[in-house]
């Protein structure tokens, strides 16, 4: 659908009390793909029971592999949230079949709906709103639907680099929540600076969009890996933070860690309790184990078990 441990000389990262970071990190989520999940021998060694685990559906991934990953994670006690990318779903019948497979084999009750990364639709759907309008998720009794957010815009949608169409879509989705029983939230792409994230989140609130935000954060990784993913994912203005770091030979080979932005966002949240960013969502670009270990060492709190309520 963002934060760094590089210490800026002009503005050192604030030293945060553990309690504030821990409160911000509570019930964090993380994203996996079937091929990366296969490399994890035991998720229970890495993630607290009840952690929400998104399963990314990349074009070319078999639905059978997605469902098998969901089944495994559900059996291990995690809240499973697979991606439903509109542009790779052929038609309504295919969507209904995917939903039936997820529910029948993995008891899935949550989904992230998004357009998907392909340039042109492979079938009848081109955006997540069309998926929502089918009514199939409601008919199947899904308890939660998340939608994508882009703090720095999305040039696939707004080619001019602005956010007009993206924000209009979020307003539509916000209205969808108010006229239905759907429990919804925005899960965002990652970015690398706190202030633009705060300004974006505040702008949504000012526009009357009340959906809670699960902010995307790039987990610990090599700098070269981050830059590669950032370019591929269309991360825009905050990419300059990584590029500046890359020019410092003393930092070039040091691993990135999301300490600074997590700290800044946690501080802002502590000072503004009604801040609409409610959760952290990790993209484990440097590996699931590396990310899970970092989260545990930096205040990541255990989520509540999957069969109980939590502050979603």
Write the layout of secondary structure elements.
Layout lengths: L17 H8 L3 E4 L1 H4 L14 E4 L7 H13 L3 E7 L6 H15 L3 E5 L13 H6 L2 H4 L4 E6 L14 H16 L4 E7 L3 H13 L6 E6 L4 H10 L6 H8 L12 H13 L5 E7 L4 H10 L15
Helix pairs in contact: 1-11, 3-4, 9-10
Keywords: Oxidoreductase
InterPro entries: FAD-linked_oxidoreductase-like
Protein name: Methylenetetrahydrofolate reductase (NADPH)
How would you characterize this protein structure?
With 312 residues, the protein is α/β, with parallel strands linked by helices. It has a single domain, classed as Alpha-Beta Barrel (TIM Barrel). The chain is 38% helix and 15% strand. An eight-stranded parallel beta barrel has the order 1-2-3-4-5-6-7-8. α1 crosses α11, α3 packs parallel to α4 and α9 packs antiparallel against α10. The longest helix has 16 residues.
* Largest sheet, strands/sense/barrel: 8 strands, parallel, barrel
Query: Would you tell me the structural class of the helices and strands?
Result: alpha/beta
Question: What is the general shape?
Answer: globular
- Radius of gyration from the alpha-carbon trace, in angstroms: 19 Å
Total of helices: 12
CATH level-1 class = Alpha Beta
- CATH fold-level label: TIM Barrel
Please indicate the count of domains: 1
Helix content: 25-40%
CATH architecture descriptor name? Alpha-Beta Barrel
The number of distinct β-strands equals 8
Order of helices and strands: HEHEHEHEHHEHEHEHHHEH
